[in-house]
Amino acid sequence: MDIFRNLIFGCGVALTPLNLVYCFLGVSLGTLIGVLPGIGPVATIAMLLPITFKLPPIAALIMLAGIYYGAQYGGSTTSILVNLPGEASSVVTCLDGYAMARQGRAGPALGIAAIGSFFAGSVTTLLLALFAPPLAQVAFQFGASEYFSLMSLGLVAAVVLAHGSLLKAISMVLLGLLLGLVGMDVNSGTSRFTFGASELSDGIGFVVVAMGMFGFAEVIRNLESTGTREIFTSRVHGWMPTRADLKASWKPILRGTGIGSLLGILPGGGAILSSFASYTVEKRLAKDPTRFGQGAIEGVAGPESANNAGAQTSFIPLLTLGIPPNAVMALMVGAMTIHGITPGPQVMNQRPELFWGMIASMWVGNLLLVVLNLPLIGIWVRLLTVPYRLLYPAILLFCCIGVYSINNASFDVVLTACFGILGYLCHKLDCEPAPLILGFILGPMMEENLRRAMVFSRGDASVFFLRPISLGMLVAAVSLLFLTIIPAIGRKREEAFKE
Amino acid sequence: MEIDVHKSKDFFAGLLFVFFGLLSVWISRDYPMGSAGKMGPGYFPTILGGTLALFGFIISIRSLWVRGEPIRLQTFRPLVLVVSSVIAFAMLVNPLGLVLATFVLVFLSTLGGGPIRLGEGTLLFLILALISALLFVYGLGLSFTLWPSLWISSET
After folding, report:
1. Which of A98, A166, A204, A380 has an alpha carbon within 20 to 30 A of B97's alpha carbon?
2. Nearest-CA distance from B128 to chain A in Å?
3. Domain for residue B72, yes or no?
4. Cα A342 vs. chain centroid, distance in angstroms?
5. Domains: count for chain B
6. Which domain holds residue B127?
7. CB A178 to CB B24 under 8 A?
8. Are A124 and A359 in contact, with CB atoms under 8 Å apart?
9. Residue of chain B nearest A180, judged by CA positions
10. B133 and B83 share one domain
11. ∠ CA A265-A266-A270 to the nearest 5 degrees?
12. How do residues A263-288 score in pLDDT, each as one tens digit?
């Protein structure tokens, strides 16, 4: 079997001492920021980008990937012990995880979360290895029109999956697309929307937008809410779940892995959505839904498997199509570009050690998380006693240093502050930043492909409907939009997010 | 039923989108449009901006009928101080060096979180300055100057 040969080859890369060290660093750091509320993987990876300048590319990517899925492990810890989601993707784990902790069953809750995550991580590593190569082959057939339709589908999916008003989500996508166009137009050399500032001629950096809208805006929001943190310091003893726990959990773990794997691939999806969807499904399927919220172990096992699965499968579109489905993956694009790698289907052939090494490292990282980091949970939790008023100046400082050092430009730091204001405004007006970010990432690529496709077809827009793959994706996009507009389904969507 | 337009989230969100949409259409009027077969740099942004303004308009108008949630504003203090501490850092890091810029950032931003605690703030500043000097400047070799370069002309 090719896949096993490839995986063994990848393991050979991932298990070199240097890569192993960076994998460990990545997952530990991921766990740490997962435990700490108020700082997420987007801000962390953005902060660490300058550090990766000096690393060999494969070590850099292994570390950054580790931060993302490591954060999924760490996030559940805080949810269960403190009733405070360390990560947005662990919000639902609070409901039943904390209830279990109050019944003195914090140990099994942590245990099942880890087991579920590990299972999901292992399965999705295999999925990546199995499906990435054939998908990349398909991607080689893609022309400009296919890429344009695919990105339209992606944006529609992001809109549909966003919370709240559909109209506002669409507007955020459009605003993101426009922001993405700032800078020199590659086809004509015209500087667009630069207001004469030479700093803007290369466009706005993704790190600037992400750090402003996620990092800074979040700090400001956290400072506004004056709620004090209550720490539930229960002694965690014996985290092995009982036989009955395992019996109740194995199906939710399987389902969670399935849901997460599917939703992770979707643009705008990823870990957060997966965990919400899994919780809703488990509650629907349960014989006695009233147990949920009272410490049902299924409500921990399902979502925790799902968010880890979603985090890992979101690498599939990045590695096979070169299209990042969410903000974390967009930062991975940034990291790859720094090292002169263009993400896309060609990576697999040109840099097999990078591709397979990264996939294998995910399994290694998951193992490290279970074996090394779980016993350290006590130490991580103690970090929660550090008050936020000491934490946020550090977050701000490291964000500033990170943004500054990408181009050695004070201008970028000021721009990030502006996006912080925009992010704060959007939060106040109930506009979700995720669709804007996705639009921002895809904006330049979309315009480029639209123009290319239209040049080839000599201005005939029917090219998007005549090529079968392109047509299929547009049909999918339109039907997805219609399904959401139909009120009954729209209502269900609201419900899912209310849980 | 009286609806207070001035407090509705949707109304202002719509206005924001109209503003950005019209702004981009207005700016793009200088860029050549080209044709569908050979799009100029103005084509895509004009269409996007127009659509955005239209959507924003619909959102605002709709908010006049559909009862929306009011905007909750408690305090601008964190917003103002966090943003100004970051901008101060950006302005100062080049002429004054990393250490003094860190000092300003730490003290301005802690003001945003509540009453200032001098001892705590000083300790925090010392630790953070040490970490960033050791890790980022010496460890990773990022190009920061640590101290104001008094002996060199500060003009450049």
Report:
1. A204
2. 7
3. no
4. 20
5. 2
6. 77-139
7. yes
8. no
9. B45
10. yes
11. 70
12. 888 776 667 778 888 888 888 888 88
